[in-house]
TrEMBL record:
<dbReference type="GO" id="GO:0019305">
    <property type="term" value="P:dTDP-rhamnose biosynthetic process"/>
</dbReference>
<dbReference type="Pfam" id="PF04321">
    <property type="entry name" value="RmlD_sub_bind"/>
</dbReference>
<dbReference type="InterPro" id="IPR005913">
    <property type="entry name" value="dTDP_dehydrorham_reduct"/>
</dbReference>
<protein>
    <recommendedName>
        <fullName>dTDP-4-dehydrorhamnose reductase</fullName>
        <ecNumber>1.1.1.133</ecNumber>
    </recommendedName>
</protein>
<comment type="similarity">
    <text>Belongs to the dTDP-4-dehydrorhamnose reductase family.</text>
</comment>
<dbReference type="InterPro" id="IPR036291">
    <property type="entry name" value="NAD(P)-bd_dom_sf"/>
</dbReference>
<dbReference type="InterPro" id="IPR029903">
    <property type="entry name" value="RmlD-like-bd"/>
</dbReference>
<dbReference type="GO" id="GO:0008831">
    <property type="term" value="F:dTDP-4-dehydrorhamnose reductase activity"/>
</dbReference>
<keyword id="KW-0521">NADP</keyword>
<keyword id="KW-0560">Oxidoreductase</keyword>
<dbReference type="GO" id="GO:0005829">
    <property type="term" value="C:cytosol"/>
</dbReference>
<feature type="domain" description="RmlD-like substrate binding">
    <location>
        <begin position="1"/>
        <end position="286"/>
    </location>
</feature>
<comment type="function">
    <text>Catalyzes the reduction of dTDP-6-deoxy-L-lyxo-4-hexulose to yield dTDP-L-rhamnose.</text>
</comment>
<comment type="pathway">
    <text>Carbohydrate biosynthesis; dTDP-L-rhamnose biosynthesis.</text>
</comment>
Amino acid sequence: MKILVTGSNGQLGSELKLLSALYRQFDFTFIDVEEVNLAEEVSIRAYFADKHFDFLIHCAAYTAVDKAEEEVALAYAINAGAVKTLAEICLEKKIRLIHISTDYVFDGEANQPITETVQPNPVSVYGKSKLEGEHHVLSILSNAYVIRTAWVYSSFGKNFVKSIRHLASQREMLGVVCDQIGTPTYAYDLASALLQIVDAIHRGQADEPGVYHFTNEGVTSWYDFAYFLVQESGLNCRIQPISTAQYKTAAVRPKFSLLDKSKIKATFAVQIPHWSESLKICIDKLNQGA
Ligand SMILES: NC(=O)c1ccc[n+]([C@@H]2O[C@H](COP(=O)([O-])OP(=O)(O)OC[C@H]3O[C@@H](n4cnc5c(N)ncnc54)[C@H](OP(=O)(O)O)[C@@H]3O)[C@@H](O)[C@H]2O)c1
């Protein structure tokens, strides 16, 4: 069975590449912007013209949340336009699409874990462009999966964990936002869940297309996440709680984005570690220079 993964240089794509070694029964192809420029429809169509895959795990995206407020057209081209083209190709070539989306499709006004039935209402260009991408997937394909995740980090790529470790090794004090609540996602755990899902579909064990939520277990703020990270990393830096109002960013972020994972756990029997346990594993990898 042939699986194509986009965004292979990104956090999630890199973890999928690592884990693919455990799934010898599948034939993986990993691509990034060098092979296909998602901002150009002709580039996407040219790539698929003479190829066939059984599954497409679409990890690539325009992920620069603040920059998207300026680069609106590019964000929409990659997060919505390219997704429409990919969904059309999947329909034509009978490829099963697993599309990755975000908690930023929500406005942050909820006060309980957000299920897949909650109405999205994005408050940033990034969130709006990703929601448009979801709509394309779900309107073109009846057998696709949209997996929303949040606060992704990994030993690969650029992310909050690596930035905080870097800054904390250089400064005595760091201010981190304490009034945005959610759950981090170790990209390795998401990659592992995605491959379990593909395997379950392939074996005919479970197959219920639609929208799913996935993060690690637990709940935290960016402040508590950073505090735990700095403690566990053995860094001597004081983490100071600050408010969102004190930390101005171009894009508005949801203040509450705790995703409910009941559906993915019930459907695919996915075991999800607590965020603190996964963060310790990532810290170990980073300490080993991974
Ligand atoms: N990061 C988060 O906190 C977060 C949170 C919620 C949801 N998500 C979603 O999770 C998925 C995976 O995110 P991630 O953290 O792995 O992202 P990432 O590390 O930023 O990787 C994104 C990948 O997309 C590629 N890409 C960007 N523009 C492209 C283009 N024009 N053509 C082809 N490839 C292009 C990037 O390539 P280059 O690096 O070479 O440009 C990179 O390999 C995305 O759908 C994202 O929206 C992420």
